[in-house]
Design a protein that fits this description.
By secondary structure, the protein is mostly helical.
Length: about 70
């Protein structure tokens, strides 16, 4: 007579809430740890964004069949 007993299903929202909560907690903890690591470091100067001037090549260019 075991077939007469109704089976209670666990609500799915609990599992979804647990996974979402863990993801949010991971993001917040990662952001805090990253901030604390960067706060302890000395600031370093950033490299220049502009390129140095490149000298133009001199002499004849390559000769090829496709150069017109």
């Amino acid at each position: 007579m075991a077939a007469d007993i109704p089976v209670r299903r666990r609500p799915r929202w609990r599992t979804v809430l647990l996974v979402v909560g863990a993801a949010v907690l991971g993001l917040v903890a990662g952001t805090c740890v990253g901030y604390l690591v960067q706060a302890d470091r000395e600031p370093t100067p950033l490299p220049s964004l502009s390129q140095a001037t490149v000298a133009q090549a001199e002499g004849e260019g390559p000769e090829g069949a496709d150069r017109r």
